[in-house]
Structures are given as C-alpha cells and as structure tokens.
Model the fold of this input.
Amino acid sequence: MQLETEQRRGARSRGSWPAGAPRKPWKSAGLSRAPTFVFLALLGCSERPGASRVDSARVTTGDTASGVPTASAAPAPRTFANPLDLDYRFALDSPSRREAADPTVVRFRGAYLLFASKSGGYWMSRNLATWTFISAPTLPHEDYAPTAAVIDGWVYFMASSGASTTRIFRSREPELGRWELYNDAFPFGQTDPALFVDDDGRVYLYYGCSDAEPLHVVELDPKNQLNPIGSAIDLFGGGPGRHGWEARGDHNELDAPPWVEGAWMTKHDGKYYLQYAAPGTEFKSYADGVYLSDSPLGPFEYALYNPFSSKPGGYACGAGHGSTFTDEYGNLWHIATMSISVKHMFERRLGLFPASFDAEGTLHAQTRFGDYPTLVPRGKVEDVSALFAGWMLLSYRKPVTASSSLPGFGPELAVDEDIRTYFSAKTGNPGEWLSVDLGAESRVDAVQVNFAEHQATARGRGGVRAAQFVVEHSRDGTAWSVLVDRSGNEADRPHAYVELDPPVRARHIRVTSRRVPTGTFAVSGLRVFGMGSGRPPAAVSELGVERDPNDRRRASLRWNAVAGATGYDVRFGVDSTKLLRSHLVYADSTLELRSLDTDTRYWFTVDAFNENGITPTPRSVEVP
Done:
C-alpha cells in the first residue's frame, strides 16, 4: 500500500489564476477574444485553463431534404457535447433501438464526411458540430464498419463483407450522394477495413475483427482498381494477460479473449501509428490502442501508454473503434464508438474527442470530461485541454419531478449520469414533462436532452417522427420562460444539445414533450451545464493505491471523500507528467481498476469537482 497525504496549499479563491498559467488561455484554443466568465482554478498543474466562448462565424449548413449544402448566415455552434447530436437511425431488426458505430471521418473539399455502421447513409459537416445526413442508395449501408479515403480527387468507400468478394465505390460528389461502383470484385471478403494512403501515394488496407485471429495488412494497387498487391501480412492480436485494458467486461473483469478489431492508420513524423480497438463494442471499457512502426507493413511495436483513447466512466462510456483525422486548421481529432448496449449489444452512439501528438510522439485522445461541452476551435490549438469549455454539470442527482412515471423508470434516472438507465413517463402523449431543481440559482450555458426509446416500435428512417419538445427555465419554480422551443422540430436527433447565447440565470429546468418518435416520453439524461454559485471543492488530500501482486493488471484506489464534491476524476499514466488516462467517478471515493499493463509502472492522482469547478491534487502517487 502506498499512501500519500498532501495538505491543500494556498487554496485559491474564486476567480484566481493558476500559477504558471498563461494570462490569455483563450489564444491556445484559437479564439480571438477573451471568455465571458472568470475561469476558476480548474485544471491540473500541467494543464491550461480553457475558454468559454468562441466567436460566431458565417457557416455552410445543409438542407435536410436534399442533403445539398446551402449558404447560411446562422452563427456556427461554438460547442458540442457527446454523444454527438446526430439523427441516429433505428435498426431494421428487433428490438427497436438506434445504432451508429465504427466511424470513419475524412476531409474532402472543405467538408468532413462521417461514415458509420448501419446508418442508411452518412453525414457531412463544415464545422464538426452541425452534421447533415446524406442518403446514398448506391452504397451498401447494411455492411458494418465502413471506411473511406481520398485518392486523386475521389472519395473511395468500402465496408465489411462476409462474402468471398468486396465491392469498392467512389465519388466526386459525395455531398449529393452520388457514387459509382469502381470495383465489383475485390478478390476477398474482410471485416473492419481501413484504407490508408501514404505520402508517396501507395495505398494499404488494414482489416480484421476476431477474438482469435490477428489484424492484417495488404498493399493495394491504385492503378488496378485497388486490387491487392501480393499477399496479406499477419500483424498482431490481443494480449489480455499482459494488457488489462484488453480483457473483456465493462470493468475488464471477464476471463475471455478480446475482440481485436477496428484498425486505423495515422502517419506522424515518419512513424506509422496503427490503431485498434478492444475488448468488445458492448463494454464501457471499449477503447483504442496503438502500435508503432517505421513501415506501413510493420513490424509493429506496442505503445506503453495504451490505450490512447478510453472513456470507462461518466454518462456515456466507451471510446473505441474509431478514426483519427485533422481539421482544416491542422488540429487532430479522434471519433469513436460509445456503448449503450441495453436493448441490444449493438445499441451504440458516436463520440468526438480532441487529440494530439506530444513532442515525444505520444498519441492521445482527450476524453477527460469527454461528455461535457467541448469548444469548436477557430484556429490551430496549442493545447487540446483548452478545448474543454469549462461548463460544469449542474443537474447530477438533483431533485427531479415528472408528470408521471412507470414503475422502475422513475425521474431520478434522468439525472444519475448513466446513459443505460432512463426515466419514462406513463405515456407518449403531449404534455408529459420532466423538471429538475438545480438547488440554487446558477448560470446555465447549455442543456442536453437525451431521449431514450421505451416501448419503441420504429424501424429504419422511413416514417420516423422527430421528437418535439419545449425547454423552460425558472428562478422560483412558479414563473416559467421558454428557453428552447422545438415544438415544430422535424430533425430526429435523440441527443439534442442546445448551447445558450447568452446564458441564463435559472434554478429550475423543465422539458415538456409535444411529440415522441415512438413509444413513451423517455429521457436517459437531462443534463444541464454551466456554473454554480458556490466554490469548487477542496482538493483530495489522501490517496492510497494498492496494486495486486498476484494480478498486476489490477489496482485498488481509495481517497478521502471531499465535502461538496460531485465526483472525482481519477487520472493516471506511465509518466508523472503524462497522466493521460481518465476515469470519472461519481458519488464514490474508491475505484477498482483492472485495465493496467503488467510490466508498466504507473502514476495516479485524483481531482475533485462539483458544479463550481475542478480542484486538482498537486501531486501524484507512483506505483511500481
């Protein structure tokens, strides 16, 4: 057992500036002006505080009927929150549930194209926050794990195929949904394909999805319909006995081989970063790791800091089977799969996370507070932690009431920060409502209404009605004012995220249903973001970490419960200056980790947070 007691030093008053932090942190987020609220001493000693506002801009949006981009003077969203606010399709089979997973994002002619499994089409965006759905009947949308790449002015597309051959498509007008069949007989079937175009124009295909077989790579011929050149090369499989994060289970607790899948390749400073997912898409522990090589064909070496993308705690968990891409400013992003897996193991959503390479080539996706609002950058970002908007969760376990509720689906389940549980009213009739009392008047910057599907019967996209609702706010619970009116909404987006500009002062937030797509009025998360009227919690002063000598993949953490804390951010990593992994814990002061690598030394720290900010613990605990 290692135990460290640290006195809280120099407690900072509200509005004070962290020692050593830059005086204009909004510059590191690519912002042109200062934030409109005083940023608290929120972030850890090695991190910079983020800004809270991004300037509005003229943007291009899409017409939902045609999918054709149209000019608009509407301001661009300045933030987004995960799960992404997309029109997720209902599955075609039973039970009725929504699904999107295994995302690929490519940039083409100033726009971002997002492809995901079982979506009936794909999305396009020009700002990473507003996405327009595009129907493309030519593409095989019922094949899993699509991939895409830009080659010589064309977007090439392929997806998993259980047949003996695979079809490859291409388009010069993806914004119009127009694709042509390019190769109708790629000579073998594969699962979870990933196309990669190297700097010299050579093209490679990585693929594989198995709990027994390795990932594979084969070079393709861009002058011969992307057919293979030579034979495929076996790469690597799972090693859950050494890599705890690859063990199956929500908490890596199962003794079963992982599904190693979802390859993606990124080249950086002459190194090849082959990313892969484990242990399984249905688990909260679903994550992406990476192997490195000097050649696209290997051999590859395991990165000691794995996984580079994981999100095992919080409202929406999972950050595996994704793709890494750069935006128009050169900022790195990682988009990945998030798990619900209640009605079906493939009930999933998408999450988008800022990412980066450090000076030593460490790849990292910033999933810390990864389902809180994230800033949309307007330029090159120096430090991805600056993209955390700084808006805290105001609604966790606050008093909540409803017009009605079904047994086992009480209103408290809408504020428990668990996407797998949800409130349901008795009916789907207009007028059903859900209301949360924040406990004190607070500044509200954003609201996310996450609808659930209870007693749903919908299939596919055809004929599905969008949820219509009204969000109101009140200071006293008696006099109400409309905050968001979507009573005429026709955009079927079950994770409705609304950014408020300007923010409002409120104590009560109420959502009233006007129409549901199917089933009852059900909400898995009524999440209110902003800043409370009090102070951040004290720092965690005692942290104990005990590593299991019989199974070094496991460690037990305990720390002193801090009065007034909503939760804790457990951060750890393979270097005291790189505590890159994050595990959010609510309403508890212990954590059992089973996700460590057996031969790796770790450092741990725990930061306390509440609706008024985050308080870092100044030191970390080293565990051999």
